[in-house]
Amino acid sequence: MMGTQIEPPEIIAKSKPMSNLIKLVHKVAPYKSTVLVQGESGTGKELMAQLVHKLSPRKDNPFVVVDCGAIPPNLLEAELFGHVKGAFTGAVRSETGLFERGNGGTVFMDEIGELPLDLQVKLLRVIQEEVIHRVGERLPIKLDIRMIAATNRNLDQMVEEGKFRQDLYYRLNVVMLSIPPLRERDDDISPMAVYFVNKFSEKLNKPIAGITREALGMLRNYDWPGNVRELENAIEQTVVMLDEGTHITPENLPLFLEKRGAERRNRFRREALDKKLSIEEYTKCFIESYQDDHTEKALAKFLGITPKTLWKKRKRWGLKRSLA
């Protein structure tokens, strides 16, 4: 949450939705207008805020991140505005707040939908008057900050429900940057996967020959509910498990990517034969591979055991029940 000098962020934008979004970023970055970044979890909202900052005249000044959902509500005001010694119990010395640390730069308010209503009023005043008061002090402190907020929540609905102030919403939403989910920008998946392969190959000091067209096809077929963050984690997991100097193939990718039943069955059969599994190992692998497609009763029938025996095996192996 400290002020940081950032390098230009890596944003891959081969798809039309992302290309259009980046063009919009270039248009709004030079100005001080507030920006609201919306998108599902894992789409890269902070990365987009960093890009706005880096393309702005404030690029050499601080970029301060405030995670509104991570700071306890009773500490949030002091964290934002700072406080003087003795302002409250435990305030043994004066502290500079996050807004003041971002003076001259950009303050990124992540998870803005988590901000309590009483602090929403004070944030609105900061945007309008560009002045703050440290907790326990009346002396005004003049600010020059560019405000960028982000959320994965529906602020329109929160306004209707009285959980978010309408006036603050209007002040934040001068410019809207809506990041499309990864499933709507599949032209970005392949170059992004290659980027992450190279990134983790270098980071882990583990030379990887590359990734096959078939593996890239499997990545493009998945819906990615966790978006870019989920893709990055999947590639890192694959690189960790892969032997040096080899290509990433469909067989190397995490099993959850094989959303189609035929893919799961083919891999299961290959592994069962290659590893010469015992009956117990086969049973365990069978359950793990098929539990998302069948009920407990059906699984037991396929294995030729009773549901009670299946339950005992689950308990022994620590396998959580997937379907009732």
Walkthrough of the structure:
The protein has 324 residues and is an alpha/beta fold. Helices cover 45% and strands 12% of the residues. It contains 14 helices and twelve strands. It has helices at residues 16-28, 45-54, 73-81, 98-101, 117-129, 155-160, 166-172, 189-203, 213-221, 227-241, 261-274, 279-290, 296-303, 307-317; strands spanning 3-4, 35-38, 63-67, 82-83, 95-96, 106-110, 131-133, 140-142, 146-151, 175-178, 210-211, 247-248. A six-stranded mixed beta sheet has the order 1-3-6-9-2-10. Strand 7 (131-133) and strand 8 (140-142) form a beta hairpin. The longest helix has 15 residues, at 189-203.
Keywords:
alpha/beta, globular
Would you spell out the secondary-structure blueprint of this structure?
Layout: E1 3-4, H1 16-28, E2 35-38, H2 45-54, E3 63-67, H3 73-81, E4 82-83, E5 95-96, H4 98-101, E6 106-110, H5 117-129, E7 131-133, E8 140-142, E9 146-151, H6 155-160, H7 166-172, E10 175-178, H8 189-203, E11 210-211, H9 213-221, H10 227-241, E12 247-248, H11 261-274, H12 279-290, H13 296-303, H14 307-317
